Predict the structure.
Amino acid sequence: MIRGMLHFDANLLDPEVEAQVDELLAKLSLREKIGQMVQIHVHDGNVEASLELIAGGHVGSVLNYYEASKLNRLQRAAVEESAAGIPLLFANDVIHGYRTIFPIPLAISCTWDPELAQEAARIAAEEATADGTHWTFAPMVDIARDPRWGRIAEGAGEDPFLGAAMARAQVQGFQHDNLESGRRLVACAKHFAAYGAVEGGKDYNTVDLSERTLRDVFLPPFKAAFDAGAGAVMSAFNEIAGVPCTANAFLLQTILRDEWGFQGLVVSDWDAVGELIAHGCAADLREAAALSAGAGIDMDMASNAYRQHLEQLVAEGAMPAAVIDLAARRILRQKCILGLFEQPYVDKSRAAHSFLRPEFRAKALEVAHKSIVLLKNEGDLLPLDRAVRRLALIGPLADDHHEILGTWHRIGRDEDAESVLDGLRAVLPETEIICVRGSNVLESEPAGVGAAVQAVSASDVVVMVLGEAETMSGEAHSRAYLGPPAPQMQLLQAVYEATTQGPQAKRQPLVVVLMSGRPLVIPWLATHIPALVQAWHGGIRAGRAIADVLVGNVNPSGKLTATWPRAEGQIPIYYAHKSTGRPVTGPGVRQFDEAFRSHYIDEENSPQFPFGYGLSYTSFRYEGLQVETPVVDLDGEVVVSAMVRNVGRRAGDEIVQLYVHDLVAEVTRPVKELKGFQRVSLTAGEERRVRFAIPVQELGFYGLDMAYHVEPGQFQVWIGPASSSGLEGSFTVRDT
Ligand code: GLC
């Protein structure tokens, strides 16, 4: 929690708010209550029709409509023209910034800095509320272990522990209780649930997993969001084991309400109610409305099923009126908590000077710095010598101001962004920079290979910026092949050849910066390119952040939060895998080294780059692991520490990680699970003992009886720089 940073709990049952809701409900007709349950998409082409619906009391919320003056116009229709005068809830996808666009959430998670994520969310809330938004469809907290899935870009990667920390932080930031805008923003954890487990990484596809995996892996970030007070949740498009989430009473009632006591509102995803027909669970929209409302969907996004059918369903006795009352209550509760009855309109003069403030842009730069992951740096090629006279900057993303914004950048603008060229010009004012696009992100043949090769021959060092367009990740953008697009690989290999010609002394060092919304499959780059920097889609300050890292103004500290495969065929691949009955003995083992073990005949088991991995311009040595509590009770804390020393020549941040393994349990347990991380800043030569105190109750799982518990017995523990290495110890949890 950032000091002095207060956030409100939108789940809180405040007696005054409940009394206000009671009073409102008592005045509403059934039709008006149903109106609260309807969310419509307004755009410039349907404003008049929407105003009519709103004035008729048929709408409770509007999504994806922007700008204070436009929103005030809709609000006046609700407050001053409709009979009940209930204000609208204005919702938008404020995923990684509103106008100050931050790096994509997957990049932010690579900072391993929840406080920073919280700050970024608060800034997004400042800008969005100043412009009239009340509710953001964020944080996206889906665990993703399949980089083919385009929406891996929107979350915090593959691990439930880190995902929960990021979920909590974002909710606290979005729901900051003292925004300068004088408004509030409700957070919405999505997509409930297990959307990241779609088969084949193909968006909207089937999800079929055990209740244990659902509870152990996919639900913890949602629970963390709700414990932080998130006021809403969005149901996912997918089914789980045959039951679509949008008609899933086990999810929406048993878990969310009965077990967790969630008091907020549940909104469906876009037309997910109507999609029950395509799922084959509803014969028509009437049945879809009945199934969704009956399962616990309080608000219907954009399908119109509720507006068309709920009143008739109640009249026919097919839908208890109590269901409508409860849904309307939850929606009105959020409107009261947001203060919409007291302040329905937004002061449109605020918006203009609320965007892109210097401190917001500075924070976006800090997040971009810390999200960059140094994947390879052979021979300490980086940082570049600032005295370099001529630098060739090549690639379709070298002077890009759009793709850099990433997926879900919404009202973010290209003109707000700095490209890598802008950044390098700022940090290397004396250097001649020859910038050549060389290829488009996607095209049949790279058109500028000749110009690129010429630029190489006229330079002392070569930096290439390659990767994905922002539309190659995000919703409905799954990929089956995960390398940089083919024309860019052709360009790269031509440039690589050009840098390996001529006398050794004349050969230009080659650095590749990758921009993407997901882990990429880059076996050729990983073996041939000496310096590799993963910069994600880093937002409006990414160009300067990348330049700062390339010249050493900033020492990179980011660490991967999703595994990078060697090949698509390894997917799903993640560090917290199970042992199986035939585990291989170590990374790099192939079939013929160990017959009849769990691996491939044509690829290693180990990933290209593992979860938790990231290099620095300095080096850190881990020594002296101490398990201070070799035996610990079920209600105790495991205390483990290690000395971390900066043995390099410059200061740096190191993200120290703690993993455990429950050796024997009534159900199989992952070979490693992250249970702690700390970011430490160490000057050259400085050392610090990094200490973790982990509540034993956090080492549990859902057992044979599907109840959460910790099983006494022996645990292995590691403290290290990544999931693939570290100092090992052990401790015993004893039965008390
Ligand atoms: C989309 C997405 C969801 C988003 C919603 C509103 O289809 O699945 O994440 O919040 O619609 O834009």
About this structure: The first helix runs from residue 15 to 27. The pocket of alpha-D-glucopyranose is lined by residues 63-64, 93, 137, 190, 269-270, 475 (CB under 6 Å). The two ends are 33 Å apart (CA to CA). Residues 272 and 533 are 39 Å apart (CA to CA).
